[in-house]
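Blinded run. Sample ID left blank on purpose so nobody reads anything into the name before looking at the predicted structure. Input follows.
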Amino acid sequence: MLKTLPVFDPDDGFAVMAIYRDGGTGVGVSVAIVPSRPDETVSIFGQDTSSRRNRFLIKKADVANMKSGDTLEIGVDVLTVQGVPSLDGTGKILSVDAHL
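Blinded prediction complete.
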């Protein structure tokens, strides 16, 4: 188990900066996030198709109460948090699904 919280550094080539807004409104706060865009294969009526998702890893300490309807602004894109973010095994990193 991790003893220290990993650092999400935009200079490392993995993390990007985003503006997090609680409820999608207000000034927001700048947070470093790690895009994790897994493609999943799902079967719909016997046809396999790829399900592309926008998933991000975010330190819980930066967005302690993240919920559905909050937003992440990345560049010119504003993504809305969908569903309930899940915690990793350490309880320190949120996995968040969001959509345009």
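Unblinding after everyone has recorded impressions. The longest strand covers residues 77-87.
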